[in-house]
UniProtKB/TrEMBL annotation, chain A:
Family label: Belongs to the YciI family.
Listed InterPro entries: Dimeric_a/b-barrel, YCII
Residue ranges constituting the YCII-related domain according to the UniProt record: 15-112
Protein's name in the database: YCII-related domain-containing protein
Length: 114, 404
């Protein structure tokens, strides 16, 4: 089994514009999707991220508050899962509930320690 | 509430669960004092406890204190799923199941019955250590030790609170029911207390049994039967003691004081218990108790029927105490000579020899036979063997009666 990271970008504005009921429904999708992964022992972990942040550049000399990216590019969360291959990891990612908010999901294999 | 939290944190973290409940209650008292009681105090408490639980999960996400390896619990570690997972734990039907699950965990067959009941009273009935100690007339220290041993057992064997699968349910429920019945009996006929009847224990035992009946999977015939049995006994509570707390025998009880409502619900439960193939001791004991409740006067008691039930009971298990009770029925039905002959069968039983009722029965038989000296000897022996003050007094009165 290899490990993969899903980097979830964008969607914050759409999400925040939702009614509490819609948000709850969305969270239930996360629940069943991640629950399914956990059942199959494919879930390692993952967290949503807060929008606020700081970005350090130029060897840490330059510090910028957000926005460091356009809304669409803002990383909103990550997930680490187990899968056989990049292809099957991508198939899993296809079901990610974040697509409901027009997010993009980047699938990257985590470099194995050797 | 504790059961839900124990399910979340694991049986190895019972203190954590108890602390959350404690905190929630303290917070409730503080808040309600100023703002008044909320419309739905229960929901308020649950919400508060839930939020505290979320805080604890966040703090312990990366520690090893809580075991998140179960897929359901793994979802508690992610912000994507924490809230929904937590809410699921607090759904009404889950709360019921968790309560029962905890009951089964407490009544694990490898835990001694004493420890089972101690733990149930503390964790599920909300008794303080002091109150539990009082129920058992022992020190708080002893109770703390018992609680500690049970917690260690949970920790060591990673016991999960859950309702057993259907193939095990009957066997495991058996242990739960004996714990409930023992608790009830302790309340009904306190073995070591100045008070003969302890209504708090009785009502706790009954509500535990009721909660088993509230969930389909645990609605077994023997559960209904025990519930019926407890109803019939409870119906007679108010007629068992005089105002001074002295014991009144069933022969002299004021039957108008018997609670009709309890007798009626007992009957309903007993009817519901009549399915499945197992005829348990609870069924028979309930049937016997019903016969007593059903008789308008003591002389109307259907002793023949009762004797039949005792015979069936003795077929299920050769319990010397049941045998002794059967001898009392024989005494009523056939007189002291026959009863004495029957009792000869168990005269070498060491357990009975230490049981005051055995000697009290012999006393009664000898008294009826007119052997007053022998009767007094037996009554005196019985006085030595019981710890209960009202019972001692009752026996002493009998002796005094003979001497006068």
């Amino acid at each position: 089994m290899k490990e993969f990271m899903f980097i979830i970008r964008g969607g914050q504005e759409e999400y925040n514009a939702n009614s509490p009921e819609e948000m709850q429904k969305h969270m239930e999708h996360w629940q069943s999707w991640m629950g399914g992964l956990a059942e199959k022992n494919q879930l390692i972990g993952g967290q949503p991220l807060m929008n606020e942040g700081k970005k350090l550049t130029e060897a840490g000399e330059k510090v910028i508050d957000r926005p460091f990216a356009e809304g669409k590019e803002l990383v909103g969360g990550y997930l680490i899962i187990k899968a056989d291959s990049l292809e099957s990891a991508a198939l899993i990612a296809k079901e990610c509930p974040s697509f409901e908010y027009k997010c993009s999901v980047e699938v990257r294999e985590i470099s194995p320690l050797e | 509430m504790v059961s839900v939290l124990i399910k979340i944190f694991g049986t190895e973290n019972i203190e954590m669960a108890e602390d959350v409940v404690q905190d929630a209650l303290v917070k409730a008292l503080e808040t309600w004092k100023y703002r008044g009681m909320p419309d739905n105090p229960r929901a308020w408490l649950y919400r508060t406890a839930k939020n505290k639980a979320i805080d604890i999960i966040r703090r312990n996400k990366h520690s090893r204190v809580i075991d998140f390896s179960d897929p359901q619990k793994q979802l508690l570690t992610s912000g994507y799923t924490l809230t929904t997972t937590m809410n699921n734990y607090w759904q009404e039907e889950h709360i019921k199941d968790d309560f029962l699950g905890m009951m089964y965990a407490c009544c694990h067959p490898d835990i001694s019955q004493e420890n089972q009941i101690t733990f149930i009273l503390k964790s599920l009935c909300g008794f303080s250590t002091k109150e539990v100690a009082k129920s058992f007339l022992t020190s708080e220290d002893t109770i703390s030790k018992r609680l500690y041993r049970t917690k260690e057992f949970f920790r060591k064997h990673k016991i999960k609170p859950k309702i057993p699968a259907s193939e095990q349910i009957s066997l495991r429920t058996h242990t739960v029911l004996s714990a409930i019945y023992l608790m009830f009996n302790e309340g009904y006929n306190s073995t070591h207390n100045d008070q003969l009847i302890r209504k708090d224990l009785i009502s706790q035992a009954m509500s535990l049994c009721k909660s088993l009946l509230s969930v389909k999977r645990t609605q077994l015939p023997e559960v209904y039967a025990l519930m019926a049995l407890m109803c019939f006994h409870t119906a007679r509570i108010n007629s068992r003691l005089t105002e001074k707390g002295e014991l009144i025998l069933i022969t002299k009880q004021d039957r108008s004081k018997w609670d009709k409502e309890f007798i009626n619900s007992g009957q309903k439960y007993l009817n519901k218990a009549a399915f499945g193939e197992g005829l348990t001791t609870y069924h028979l004991e309930a049937a016997i108790a019903y016969e007593h409740c059903n008789a308008k006067e003591y002389k109307d008691t259907d002793w023949n029927k009762i004797l039949e039930y005792y015979k069936l009971l003795l077929k299920i298990g050769n319990d010397p105490i049941v045998f002794l009770n059967q001898c009392l029925v024989i005494l009523e039905l056939k007189g002291p000579k026959e009863a004495l002959i029957a009792l000869k069968n168990v005269e070498n039983n060491t357990m009975l020899k230490k049981y005051y009722v055995y000697h009290a029965t012999l006393g009664e038989i000898q008294q009826r036979l007119g052997n007053n000296t022998k009767a007094i000897e037996h009554y005196q022996k019985a006085v030595q063997l019981t710890q209960s003050k009202p019972e001692k007094q009752f026996l002493k009165d009998k002796i005094a009666h003979i001497l006068n």
